[in-house]
Amino acid sequence: MNFRCIALALGFVGAGTALNAHADLIFNVAAVSDYRARGLSQSRFHPAAQAGVDYTNGGLYLGAFASTIKWIEDFPGGGADYELDVYGGYAGELGGGFGYDLGFLRYIFPDNGLEPDANTTEIYAGLTYGVGKLKLSRTVSKNFLAIPDSGKSYYVDLSASLDLGDGYTLVPHAGYQFISGPYSGDASYADASLTLSKDFNGLVPSVSLFATNAERSFYMPGGGAKGDSRNLGRAAVVVGLKYNF
């Protein structure tokens, strides 16, 4: 994993703290037994190391996230062994208990070597009410994650953050990933997850259950996986440990 790229992203975000003494900057490091994004394994069922930073100033936020991955190296010519995401946006109140969240997310896979390119940009809009959030993410780059002619893809998800008391949080989630273009029928899928975590003064262990109806014929590892043909969206329990500081 190239920590120099992570340091550059974190340094860019951190530079903003000098502009406003009331801004908040939180770093985190984590390890997970399997890196799942929208229900799909990005690390081919292997453990992953992760790091991130979040900067907030009122409703404005910026952030960066990095994780080790395997799926790109499993395809011919693929060369990225990590993912770096940068994001930002603005969240505010609408009144009556409702809120909004508008922003962008850029997935970066340095020197990924895939054709089409795996780098992807999304914009999103979220509506919150109480503990619940409904969010729509729309691809605005030419393709979504190296899937040809998929530039009109979108992801819609509904989640809640339930405070159970004594540091415990339960997060149910359901989503649908629509992939535009010629692979829509095979590539589009629904996912669901349930995550239980507990905060021990910044140290947060978690356990998650993931499930999808992703088609195995489309979402299986590439030829570099040495014969591994498991569905990357198969149901699984994932454990994690995160430290916020």
From TrEMBL:
Keywords: Signal
Signal sequence bounds: 1-23
UniProt protein name: Uncharacterized protein
NCBIfam families reported in the protein's UniProt record: gcw_chp
Entries under InterPro entries matching the protein: CHP02001
Species whose genome carries this gene: Aromatoleum toluolicum
Organism lineage: Bacteria, Pseudomonadati, Pseudomonadota, Betaproteobacteria, Rhodocyclales
Pfam families (UniProt xref): Gcw_chp
